[in-house]
Amino acid sequence: MGYEVDFLPVGEKSKSGDAIAIRFGNLHGERSEQIVVVIDGGFKESGEKLVEHIQKYYNTKIVDLAILTHPDNDHASGLHVLLKELEVKKLWMHKAWEHTDGTAILFEDGRITDNSIGTRLKESLETAYGLEKLANEKGIEIEEPFTGLTDYTGCVSVLGPSEEFFERMLVGFSGLPETVTEEASMSKSFFEKAKDIVINWISEKWNFDLIIDDGETTSYQNNSSAIIQLVFDNSRMLFTGDAGREALAEVVELLNGYNLPDLKFIQIPHHGSFRNIGPTVLNGLVGEIKPKDHKPHFSAFVSAAKEGAPKHPSKKVINSFIRRGARVHVTAGAGKHHYDSAPDRDGWSSATPEKFYKEVEE
């Protein structure tokens, strides 16, 4: 019994995305003894590479479960190709346009209705809405990935968001008017200004995180990401999409008290952005800072485009995972493969993990 996790490279220049293929079960046996899962599809080109990858290395045209973590194009576009080219048994995706009941009262524009909000969301989240329509045309069952949802094997489960948390995030989605509060406009203003920030470099120390728990966070859409856990053959893996601190904190709270296998693998959220994590969340997800001579004991992958640095991934985020015992790998134009008891692949070799950075962005 074994598993393999493949992070395909997404983005030729500076725009990052996610395209992840997973296979687990008896990988040396028949297809009926294996489960194939895809989490996000990147851009259209990434979807084409996903299809090729699954056919070549997993030797199948059947995907048991496809998951769209959230409706951004860099995650959703490639799944259109997957659904068209392969046989997908089930699709997990949120349908924001079906969660508008009572939402209209939260906005300044008194002329809007819940129905008009649903229409706006369908227009602004056109790629995701198109994915739903395509799945319906092909007879693919759709379920919304809220906390507690589990696949038929019992191995793949959703840790977040809860439906309540998702609907709180919904009011800040693109395509909606400004809310009565100033929160959305303040966040928008920050991200607009962030484009002009000049990067300064500062020295880093082993026993202190330069990422912080408070301050500006990620977008509402990113924070609505489905957070997926795979537990198989005493191995536990976490896939975080673009989830932010608030979403991840709910997962930490949920996991407290559960007797789970030690974490073997985690996806670093949102391509390594420093706005998505903080020390408190990291301590809850992967453990506290280890001594400098500690031997790495789990793997962490981050999807980042070739020219994504220094924004994607942030060096201080990489350091924060390394000091907690992670072997960190960055896609940056090359696919990455995490596996156990999987068949050998011709032409694939061991990758060198990232080293601890002595200087990071301020």
Describe how the helices and strands are arranged:
Layout: E1 2-7, E2 19-25, E3 34-41, H1 44-57, E4 62-63, E5 65-67, H2 73-85, E6 87-88, E7 90-92, H3 114-124, H4 126-137, E8 141-143, E9 156-160, H5 163-170, H6 183-194, E10 201-203, H7 220-223, E11 227-232, E12 235-239, H8 245-255, E13 263-267, H9 279-286, E14 298-302, H10 315-322, E15 326-330, E16 336-340, E17 359-361
Parallel strand pairs: 3-5, 4-6, 5-7, 7-8, 12-13, 13-14, 14-15
Antiparallel strand pairs: 1-2, 1-16, 2-3, 9-11, 10-17, 11-12
Helix pairs in contact: 1-2, 2-4, 3-4, 8-9
Total helical elements: 10
Strand tally: 17
H-E order: EEEHEEHEEHHEEHHEHEEHEHEHEEE
Question: In this structure, how is the largest beta sheet organized?
Answer: 7 strands, mixed
Structural class: alpha/beta
What is the number of independent domains? 1
Computed over alpha carbons, the radius of gyration is: 20 Å
**So, CATH architecture?**
4-Layer Sandwich
Residue share in helix: 25-40%
Strand order of the largest sheet: 8-7-5-3-2-1-16
Strand proportion, as a percent range, falls in 15-25%
Instruction: Identify the CATH class.
Output: Alpha Beta
User: In the CATH hierarchy, what is the superfamily?
Assistant: Ribonuclease Z/Hydroxyacylglutathione hydrolase-like
Low-confidence runs: 182-195
Structural features, described:
The protein has helices at 44-57, 73-85, 114-124, 126-137, 163-170, 183-194, 220-223, 245-255, 279-286, 315-322, and strands at residues 2-7, 19-25, 34-41, 62-63, 65-67, 87-88, 90-92, 141-143, 156-160, 201-203, 227-232, 235-239, 263-267, 298-302, 326-330, 336-340, 359-361. With 362 residues, it is of the alpha/beta class. It has one domain: Metallo-beta-lactamase, Chain A. The protein has a 7-stranded mixed β-sheet with strand order 8-7-5-3-2-1-16. Strands 9-11-12-13-14-15 form a 6-stranded mixed β-sheet. Strands 4-6 form a two-stranded parallel sheet. Strand 13, helix 9 (279-286) and strand 14 (298-302) form a beta-alpha-beta unit. Helix 8 (245-255) packs parallel to helix 9 (279-286). The radius of gyration is 20 Å and the shape is globular. It starts with a strand and ends with a strand.
